Task: structure prediction
Amino acid sequence: MIVSVPHRGALHRLDALNVYSALRRRRPSWPPLESATCSAGGKHRHFSVRELEAFLEPGFRVERVTRTGLGLEEPIYLAALLGRVPARRTHVPKPILFLHLFVYLLDDAVPWGRLGYNLTIRAVRPETPA
Result:
């Protein structure tokens, strides 16, 4: 099984969704985020390796951990979210989403160890004899 989530590393506070949500709490007239982007509590959650391991079913063993990217796409996405405010748009324009995705893919290709913004684990469940 391969699982990829935002990493709760040194740079997790740069998360555009969480920064925007914090700013919006001070300015409730700003457009809300799309419901699919955040959990019910309004937080875009980041995980440590230990937290992610806790979600695994019994019998799964983490075989590989990779932390990539620095979150360079987050300022682009935050700018896009803030750009919606004057126009009262509820969505981010598609060209900005494509730019965000492009920077994300480039950034995610670089392993940064514990500084990595994205966390991917590969877990295996050893086969049991029949």
Observations:
- Helices lie at 16-26, 49-55, 74-87, 94-108.
- The longest strand covers residues 61-68.
- The two ends are 21 Å apart (CA to CA).
